[in-house]
Write a structure and sequence with these properties.
Elements lengths: L14 E4 L24 E5 L5 E5 L6 E8 L14 H11 L8 H7 L5 E5 L2 E9 L3 H13 L5 H19 L2 H13 E3 L9 H6 L2 H11 L5 E7 L30 E2 L5 E5 L4 E7 L6 H15 L5 H9 L4 E7 L6 E7 L3 H17 L4 H17 L4 H13 L15 H7 L3 H12 L4 E6 L8
Length: about 450
Amino acid sequence: MTKKTAICVKQLLCAAATAGFGLLCFTASPASALDRSVYGSGIASGNLQHGGRYVVTLPSSVPLTAVELWYAVPSTGFGPTATASIARLAAQSVAASTPITGVSLGDYVSSIGGTLSIDVFPDSVAITALVPTTNASATVHLLTQSYFSPVLTDVGLRRAKLDLATQALLEKFDPDTVIRNGLFAGLFSAGPAHYPTLSIHDLTNLDLDSVRAFAERGFQTQRASLIVSGVVEPGLLESVLPGRIDPTVHPEQDRNTLISTPAAKPSETIIPFTEPGNGFAWLGPDIKDEAASTAMDFIADYLFHPTDGRVTHLLANQTPEVTLSGQFITLRKPGVFVVSISGNGSAVATKIARDEISKLATTPLSHDEFERARNAFIYHLQSDLQTPADLAASLGWYATEGQPEYAPGAKGGEGSYFRNAAMLSPKKITEIAKQFLASQPVTVTLQPSGQEKSQ
């Protein structure tokens, strides 16, 4: 899981494949005047030549360029039968495949000293790169050539399968991934969020024709959001290739494939595992409810921030062996509030965490405590937007989820997100906690062999 910024909590949904390929970049020629109304004067945005969009931030002093290419596609494919792994395998196979002329994207970016990462979420795929600025234009050219007109080879597919098989094995023994996969399976009864983004069974059975069909449909230019942050050379967008357009494919008609169906009622799942663990989760507000979504982010930060969270401090004193994470994942519809706890003492830690959430849903924070917590919340947000890669991740996530102007980092500290943060109050926090977090959650228990279910 690679995207660890506080606002892009979204990484908790996915398992990210970080290939040994290198890094990558992309962008495209604008077809219209730059639109500064969404992101402000420090960020330019516009349309790609054949659909899709791009976002470019002002240069920084570090000679690096961070680029993310986002696609709104279902992780389980477009067909009536869900196929876990197909989006991850397609994205990685494209990067590993060598066209008739030239080199593969992965081999090229590796040769210039970069790191390519591919993150797959239930409703999106992100390809991320951090490149030396001197190589940015060439990388943009090769990246857009690779994904806008994807070429997949048998060798590339085999390389991708090998990498992902290793990743699948690691995920099998990662308690946080196991808990989160179980929670999402319980939260959603159908749709891509019900399934993991990587399944060794599907990975083994997928063939080249199926993977190529997904790539050609899913990675078209019209679906793309291109985010460039850091040092941007003049003419960088001119390096983008227009890509192949299939007139029979209409991305707007595929939007229903991105939607997952909430389960009718909460469930409890017990999963055999090597160590104890507990997870619990609730459905939250849609991304369009910016006030409620910001409040949920505040709650997650106040309780579960890795160093400053209230629950984090309580557990450090009482259950120091426990590993804890808790975040609100802002999604198109609906968002998800998820908490994962693993290690010895998980049952005690779970009670403490649930008790603290219940307190927020019944008793507003004092004025002084709230102001301290809100200042910390804003500081954490701003701290997590310091690097080009962090800013690109934030802008890419919210653009793909359909609410680009709400992204932390859009219009700097004057954007929609920070305006909503400034309007929070103790009463609002309690109202939102009561509305979304007071009901029975979906739960997952990791149960070591021979032990009874943790209470």
